[in-house]
């Protein structure tokens, strides 16, 4: 069904932060998700870039996503309280080939949780993306530790992804929207539990894989 044919629908607007260190692929992930493109030419974000995407969540609901792509340089983190205001969700990105960016991801998450929260006082839902999974020879041990990393840092879940090869980009977007919708409609009433979502295989894997996604309850 085309978006224009949806009648009497609910229209929801979510501000989504995209944060992480320099060169992890934040802008490329947004470009792939919003415009279905990948640009081989790297250009670091200066300050904040913006992107909009509208999706038909169901027959009666339109979701408008306003992405805030925040530069990873240290000087912009000092202004993050202004950038984070009003956010309803976040994507924290790291480079799976560079373990130092995973360490930085926990710092970005702590910064996020210290400066913005939902009206209920709960942290905004955040998904962790292990970008550049298309690159051969990455350290498989990093992925094996991410379940615990997400639990320790209160992420809603994580996925390996590749902006270049379009691996799990749409799946990550759908998962974050689901978490924001649950928070927005007050449906987070169940106990803390592990959910499973089916995602596309990373290069070299023959079957689809299920990654555990951790979600906090009340």
3D architecture notes:
By secondary structure, this protein is of the alpha/beta class. Strands 2-3-1-4-5-6 form a six-stranded mixed beta sheet, with helices on both faces. Strands 7-8 form a two-stranded antiparallel sheet. The N and C termini lie far apart (about 35 Å).
Q: How helix-rich are the residues, as a percent range?
A: 25-40%
Q: Indicate the overall shape.
A: globular
The chain-level structural class is alpha/beta
Instruction: Quote the average pLDDT.
Output: 82
Main β-sheet, in a few words?
6 strands, mixed
- State the distance separating the first and last CA atoms: 35 Å
Radius of gyration: 17 Å
How would you classify the quaternary structure? single chain
Query: Strand order, biggest sheet?
Result: 2-3-1-4-5-6
Report the sheet-strand fraction: 25-35%
Count of helical segments?
7
Unreliable parts: 187-218
In total, the number of strands is: 8
Write down the secondary-structure element order: EHEEHHEHEHHEHEE
Short summary:
The protein has 218 residues and is α/β, with parallel strands linked by helices. It has helices at residues 26-35, 74-77, 80-84, 99-115, 140-144, 146-153, 169-184, and strands spanning 10-19, 48-58, 61-70, 89-95, 126-131, 157-160, 193-199, 209-215.
